[in-house]
Each structure stands twice: as C-alpha cells, then as structure tokens.
Amino acid sequence: MAKKMTVSGVPPNELDHASRTHAVLSASAAKRWLNCPPSARLNEQFPNVSSEFAEEGTAAHELCEYKVRKYLHDRMERPQSEYYTEEIEQATDVYAEFVISIIEEMKANGAEPLALVEEKLNYSHIAPSGFGTGDMIVIGKDSQGRGLLHIVDYKNGKGIFVDADHNPQMMLYALGALRAYDYIYDVEIVRMSIVQPRLENLSTYEMTVQELNEWAESIKPIALMAYEGKGEQKTGDWCRFCKAKPVCQACKEEALALCREDFLDLDAGAFDTAEESDMTAPYKADTQTAVFKQPGLIPLSELSEILPTLNRISSWIEAVFAFVSSEAINHGVSIPGYKVVEGRSKRVFTDTKAVVDTAVANGYTDLYKQSLITLTEFEKMMGKKKFNELLGSYVAKPHGKLALVPESDPREAVDLTEPSQEFSVLPD
Ligand code: SF4
Known about the structure:
Blueprint: E1 2-4, H1 30-35, H2 39-42, H3 52-72, H4 86-108, E2 114-122, E3 131-141, E4 147-154, H5 168-185, E5 187-196, E6 201-208, H6 209-227, H7 249-263, H8 266-270, H9 274-279, H10 300-331, H11 352-361, H12 375-382, H13 384-391
Helix pairs in contact: 3-4, 7-10, 12-13
Iron/sulfur cluster (SF4) binds near residues 36, 238 and 242.
C-alpha cells in the first residue's frame, strides 16, 4: 500500500504537534471568518492561550496518529501523556478502527490506497496563505471504481457536536489534498468524516469534486476580504471561539439591541409617557417609576425565537467577565468599581504520612475507607469479553440528563410521550 511520512524526511516522532501553527485563514476557524471576515485579523491581536482541553486534544491526536501509524507499519514510539485515560484510549481506538476500515475497504475495491497521516495541506489557491494539517487522508477508489478522496478528522471534545455536512474546515482540507494528490487517482468523489467518539458522533458527508470546486470559487472573494481585514463584523454561533469576543463591538451591540428593542421593548412601552405609566400603575398612582404600558408575559413562541441570541449573549457576557477578571488578576489592571479578593478555600493536610503516624500513635484507628473499583476498571482488569460474559447482565446505561439543544444538534430527539420519560411538557 502506498503511504507517506507526514512531512517528507521528518520522522513522525519529531513532529511537534504543539507547533501546529495556524494560518490567518485557518481551516478550523473557517466558519468564523467566512461569516465574519474581519475576525481573521482581529484575532491576530490576541495571544494564543492554551487550555487543558486543548492539551488533552493534542495528546489524544498523538495517540490517534500512533495507532494508525502502527497499522501502517510506520515506526513511531508510543507517545506518553498524563491525559491518557481509559476514555481517551477507547476514543482513539474508535478513530483508528474507522480509519483502518476505510483503507481496508479501498483495498477491497481493488485500489492501492495512498494513506497520509497528519498531512500538511495547502489551500492558499483558495484562501490567501491558507494551510492546515489533516488528521488522515486516504485516496483510492470507491465501490463503483470512482476515484475517491476520504478525509477524516478526529475531534476529542465532548462539548459541541461537530457535523461533517458542508463543514468548511473539511472542505478546505479536501481542496488542499486535491491540489496535491488529484493526479494519483483522478478523484471524482470527496468524502469527509468527523469522528467524535466521546459524543458517539460519526458524521460523514460526500460531494463531487465539481461541487467542491464550485464552493471554492464562491468563497474566494470572502477569503480575500478576510485576509485583508475587511468586511463587516457579524455575530453568530461562530463567535464561540473568537478571541476578540470580550471586546467585540458587534457582540455588545447585539446584546444591547436585544435588551432595548426585543426583550424589554423599552422604547415602545416602558417609558412611553408619564400619563400612561400612571394609568397602568394602580397601586402607586403617584409613582415616578416608569411602568410597562402593557405589562404582560412573553409568550413561549417569542422566547424560543430569541433563544439562539440569548445563548450567544450569555456566552459573550461570560467572555467579558473572564477577560476583565484576567486583566485584573493576572495583569494587575485596575477596574474602576471592582477589586480583587480571595475566595473561600478548603483546609488540606500538608503531610498525609505524618497525619496517619500521629493519629495511629495516639490510638486512633479506622482511618481508611474502601470502595469498589469502577466499571471501567473492572473492564480493564477482566478484558471486554470476560467482563461482558461475567458482569454484562449487571450493567445498565441510565438515561442521560435531558437538555434543550438547537434543532441542528445531530442527536436524536427524545420522545417525551414515552412512558419511560417521566416529565411534563411545558404548555405553550
Ligand atoms: S466575536 Fe465579533 S469579531 Fe468575533 S466572530 Fe463574532 S462578531 Fe466577529
């Protein structure tokens, strides 16, 4: 089978995942800069702050890479990380098994697939200076003998579902891969898969090369505008990971506009005229406080209309507080009207051994508690097969906590009419 090192001449272990530098028009942020072009340059003004989630994600990607390379017989030492829990092991296994199944299927289709792991992809012919790293690219033939490019991306997160359908990150990677390798199999079909095992999400989308190229042409002017820092700021769910969010004018305007016009409807009623206010305030006829002209309740249908905006605003408010707190706490910036204080803390033992020795020396016993090992630890100890054989009948998967999510969320809706779901439906 054809296979290739990530960057020719560089052994896999020497690849620095942490140095996956990002282009101004990075593929992972494509949804953001395609919708809000100035955000590409605005984000450059803020430092990259790593998080525990990001570090865990990098470690998980390294394990994914190792497992696929092992199958491909590429030499690579198994990476080590404090993040390698049983959950990450299982998640990366799911990814590796999926990738291997793609390669095996292409082999069964009579093609000698080209498998590219952690491949740097250049799509600068579409978006200026655009490049990114594809987790897995496989090029071969589909069951009908057509040239097939299959791109797979591992998502370690378990907060937000990622859909492969018209996913601009995947489409930009595909354009980069086509540019470099189209000559091998005369690719006709592009298949893009997102593997997000911790949310049991495996999403695949397919399009023809012609459709992909049409999309590429349609975004070229937007990409140029974004690269030049032009265009208008536009809020949407793409704001979520925008580093400019805490100080974004568009976010502020959206929040204030909602309060002013849609939610409280102040101009239309609350402060209309003193006379009307008085008339609607029977218990305080002499009050100077403005009262809603037509006080009432917001219908559920109206609330549901503003839910997406409220989500965004609440996330913007959190970002503002986080940003201002960080400025004050980490950089000593003085915020008028606010001060930095210490929160409550819990007492801790400084030397556990000395504590135990002292307690025992003074006649105290029963210092330790015992508890049963976890289900995952049992499974690991016995192996999956034995575990299922011996304990499988004692395992149940309770219902997860219910949550209200947007219609676009790929999870199946819960049937609230089923007797097993014991809750009442809110009246409209
Ligand atoms: S936060 Fe502001 S700059 Fe960033 S994407 Fe949203 S609207 Fe654009």
